[in-house]
Amino acid sequence: MNDKNFAAASLAAQAMGWIDPVTKAVVPPIHMASTYQRDEDNGFRSGRIYARADNPTFDQVEATLAALEGGPKALVFSSGMSAASACFLALAPGDHIVAPKVMYWSLRHWLAGFATQWGLKVEFVDADKLDAIAAAVNPGVTKLVWLETPANPTWAVTDIAAAADIAHKAGALLAVDSTVATPVLTRPIELGADIVMHSATKYLNGHSDLIAGALVGARDDAYWAKLRTIRAQLGTILGQTEAWLLMRGMRTLFPRVQWACRSAEMLAQKFATHPMVDQVLYPGLPSFSGCCRCASRAASAGPSPRRHASICGSGPPRWAASRA
C-alpha cells in the first residue's frame, strides 16, 4: 500500500496493506524465534542476528507508525519510559537538557534522579512559554529540548514549530512526547521535531492490555543509530505478542480518537458553565491559554480539522481535532 495514495486512517486500518507473500494472509504472524540461521560463511545476510536487536513481528507496526508520523524509521520499546529514557541515554554526561516542569511524573522523576546523578544537566522550564525555553537554551551546550504537548495533567500546549526553531538555532535536537495528541491530531516531525515519542500503552494501543513505547525519527542518522543500539544492548525491546497486539490496536486508532474528541468536547462545554466548577482545562475553549496553538497544530494533522477538545478526568487525556 503506497502511503501517498491513501488517507492516514486507511493506512492504520489496513496496517499498510500488508499481505504475507507466502500464505497471502492479511494479518501477520507472531514470530517467536529468539535467533536466526547463519549463512554458510557464518554471516547474517538476512539482516537479523538476534531477537534482542529486532524481530519480524516489529516490522509492520514500526512501518505503520513511521508512515503515520511522517518519519523514515520507528522503533518500538518495552514501555513509554524505556523509549523516552533512550533519548537521554543517547547523550553524554555533562550535556544540558531543557525539559518541561509539567510532564509525565515518572519521566520527570527519572530526569531529576537517575539522569542527573548520571551526569546530565537537566533544566526544567514552563515549556508552554517560548521565552522560557529560549532563556534556558545554551547554544553549543544544550543538546536536547524535550516537550510534552499537550502536557499531562494541565494540558499546557507548546508551539512545536517555534520551539524547534529555538532548539535548532542553538544546535540542539527537539523531541516531542506526543502521547496525548497521537498522529491523528499532530505530526510533530512536520513542525520541525527531530524525535517523536509515544507511550503506546495509551491511545496507540487503546485496549489497556499491554505496556509499550515507541520512537519515530525525522532522520536515519547517527543519533537514531544510538537509539537503536541502546534498545538492543539494554534489551528494552517489545515482546512479540505485545507488538502484534499493538498493531491490532492501531487499526482502530483514528475512530477511537475521533470519538474521544467528541465526548471530551461535550463534557468540556458542559462543565465550563457548571456553577460548581471553577475552571476546565480544555485547549478547545477560547478561555484556554493555548487555544490558538491547538488550532494551528491540529491543522498539521490533516486537511480538515473540525473541532478541538480536552478535559481533565480519571481516564486518558483528551485533546483533539476531529478529522474528516
Strand and helix map with partners:
Blueprint: H1 8-13, H2 56-69, E1 73-77, H3 80-89, E2 96-100, H4 105-118, E3 121-125, H5 130-136, E4 142-148, H6 160-169, E5 173-177, H7 182-185, E6 195-198, E7 213-217, H8 222-234, H9 240-250, H10 253-272, H11 291-298, E8 305-311, E9 318-323
Parallel strand pairs: 2-3, 2-4, 4-5, 5-6
Antiparallel strand pairs: 1-7, 6-7, 8-9
Helix pairs in contact: 2-9, 3-4
Low-pLDDT runs: 299-324
Give me the count of strands.
Answer: 9
Proportion in helices:
25-40%
CATH topology of the largest domain: Aspartate Aminotransferase, domain 2
CATH superfamily of the largest domain: Type I PLP-dependent aspartate aminotransferase-like (Major domain)
Structural class: alpha/beta
Beta-strand percentage? 15-25%
The first-level CATH class name of the largest domain: Alpha Beta
Q: Can you tell me the overall shape?
A: globular
The CATH architecture of the largest domain would be 3-Layer(aba) Sandwich
Q: Using only CA atoms, what is the Rg?
A: 20 Å
Count of runs of 4 or more consecutive helical residues: 11
Average pLDDT, rounded to a whole number, is 88
The first-to-last residue Cα distance is 21 Å
The helix/strand series, from N terminus to C terminus, equals: HHEHEHEHEHEHEEHHHHEE
- Domain count, please report it: 2
What's the arrangement of strands in the largest beta sheet? Answer: 1-7-6-5-4-2-3
Outline the biggest β-sheet.
7 strands, mixed
